[in-house]
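re: ur question from earlier - yeah i can do the single chain one, its not a big deal. heres the input i used so u can compare w yours
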Amino acid sequence: MLKKLREEGKEEEIKMLYEAFFIFAAMWAYGGSLDEDNKGNFSKTFIGMSKIKFPEGGQCFDYFWDPLEGGWRHWETKVPKFDSNYEGLFNNLVVPTAETTRQRFLLDIHVSARKGVLYVGSAGTGKTTVVKDYFTTIDPDTTLSAAINFNSFTDSKTLQVVVESQVDKRAGRTFGPPPGKTLIYFMDDLNMPYVDKYGTQSPICLVRQILDHKIVYDRDHLEEQKQLVDIMFTACMNPKSGSFYVDLRLSRHFTLISCLTAERDILKAIYFSILDNHFGSFDKSISELSAKIVGATTTVFWGVATSPQFMPTARKFHYQFNLRDFSKIIQNIMLAQANHYRGNPLGIIRMWAHECHRVWLDRLIFEEDRETYMNFMRNAIKEFNDVKEEHIFEEPLLYTSYVSACEGHEAAYLPIKGMDHLKGVL
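and the output i got, formated as tokens:
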């Protein structure tokens, strides 16, 4: 494109192109690592300083420069269509959004430049999903990947065994992937390794050694070095767990990008796409519930996740609520089979209430917390206009798949008939 512009003598367009690319790079270099509140403040300042004006509405991170159109375009315009025929595991399901699209783009240009990316965010923000989804799109003829899950027992020796198991000997003491290919190591939970009494983490030190010097030492003959070529690292970490800290001499090798909890509208769009696809085989009275169930779940989730009352403390250390809770509820509702719920929307609504109770209510240990949660639920069921509260929460409110299986039928996720019936099965 630059060649064509030069041939046409469009120097001003060339200057604008370079200016736009610089603005885009500076925007992510300085603002990509900020948290939610600071990103908003940064965006306002950055848009005001930019010589090339951004469109009205949203943050600067919502846009990319399109060299063909010569202007900023919203990431929504590049979001691919959701594959409704997906038949894999629910946990591997990815609904394309503007966030996943831009993160995949950023990761792609970093891989092209052999520069690592470190995604940082709390549990359930999609860090690992973004990277693993990207690996499904790479060309296996040019790029290979290997996942390394860090935990408190990971040490440098264990890590070195994993690293060396993915490369082949080339010549002399040089090791790497097959010629012409790049190997990407993905380190999940980077900050989880145990911190020793000297304040260091041995696997982190080994990764830094590889990045700095491209070598590891033979464990049996320490005077011998093994040179590693055509490899790179990318990583994820949760700052609310593990050591809370990673050696700056390691993190300097990575571009730091923060992953934030999705906004309400994005949450609704993601889970509506998934649930509505599942309810496509149900009758109309149930298929119409997709938006209502997602809206009700969003109401409860936002209340539980943002209320100071549900923040973890010394007595409530297990009060860790994140997007994985939302996913569990939708995933379990999708256990319902169309032939068991014909013309029974109340059965699906009660299943939703049951899942919310199992995911949230069962973890609450104080009566005042349980009452606050029930207030969130009462507010949420306003989505189901024609259904009374006493019908939704009528006891016993229990769904199982093993009762039908124990009685010799096909396993089906259904409500129990009564407590005596359940006790008999147990």
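The longest helix spans residues 11-31. not sure if urs matches, ping me
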